[in-house]
Amino acid sequence: NYIGSIIATLSYIANQNNAKTFKEFVDKLTLPLSSELGTEVNSDDDPEIKELRGVINKMRAKYLEDAEFINHFSEIFKDENFESISEGSLFNTALYISALDEGNKVEKFLDKFMQAPSPQLQGRYRSVLGVIKDKNAPKEIVKYMIDGKIRGADCPYILASMIVNKYIGKESWSVIKENFDSLLKVMPAWTASRILDSLSSIYDEELGKNIKDFITKNPLPSSEKIAAQKLERLEANIEFVVNIKSKFNEEAIEKALKEK
Question: Residue 16: which of 150, 133, 166, 235 has the closest Cα?
């Protein structure tokens, strides 16, 4: 998903003052495909078309933050027959976008995760835990991990997605630091370094420095070389954003977004 990666990078480069301009840029970029594909699943579509539609829908929900659009999929998620949806792309899209609805509390996702009738369904719920917008998500998810309700080998991957969550990333990192030793005890040593998997997607200077300083002082087990590589990539990201912002003022960045 190269388009998603590029947009994610641009979202960090564009200053918060340019939020409206950035949304207009994403809307202009994705609207043609969205209009052509529609938001609803067509059973006759090829798998590639279904996947592309899902990517576009998720992207528009995440960056445009259109309450009506998000609510449409959130209502599908809230329906009592949600788990009977057989179309995987619709299920996954509705689940992901519903996590962006702040009205859907983390407890609901955790309950569904715990009560999932099959390992496959439980895996789907687990995959969106790090995306949840609810401000209480970091504490509740970490508590589930420490209590052993989430498999230790899965914890690092969830934590990695929580760190890069644009709504609760900084809070997630604070909670991880506060519970660092307890989290390491429930995770297999060989998977612990996966906590850092999302560093390549972090462009926030304050958060990046905080992570680097902490991991340098509190190294993860059996991951010195891997951690060094990931921290180096993190530094490169931050340097990239700093350089861009030093060479192009806010007006120039806004102009570039409007011209695309």
Answer: 166
Tokens 């998903």 belong to 1
Q: Which residues contact 201 (CB under 8 A, 6 or more apart)?
A: 5, 8, 164, 237
pLDDT in tens, 136-171: 999 999 999 999 999 999 999 999 999 999 899 999
Candidates 165, 178, 181, 186; CA nearest to 220 is 181
Q: Is the overall model pTM greater than 0.90, yes or no?
A: no
**DSSP secondary structure letters along 197-224:** GGGGG---HHHHHHHHHHHHHSPPTT-H
Beta strands in 135-185 (DSSP E): none
Quote the DSSP letter at residue 180.
H
Residue 79: CA count within 13 A, CB half-sphere: 15
Length of the chain: 260
Residue reference for tokens 């929900």: 61
Question: Token pair 């590639």 is at which residue?
Answer: 48
CA-to-CA dists, residue 168 to 24, 38, 113, 136, 161, angstroms: 24, 30, 20, 9, 10
DSSP string, 18-33: GHHHHHHHHHHHHHHH
pLDDT band at 17 (very low <50, low <70, confident <90, very high): very low
CA separation (Å) from 234 to 156, 203, 213, 221? 18, 7, 12, 19
The pLDDT tens digits for 175-214 are 999 999 999 999 998 899 899 999 888 888 899 999 999 9
Q: How far apart are CA 51 and CA 24, in angstroms?
A: 24
Average pLDDT, the chain: 89
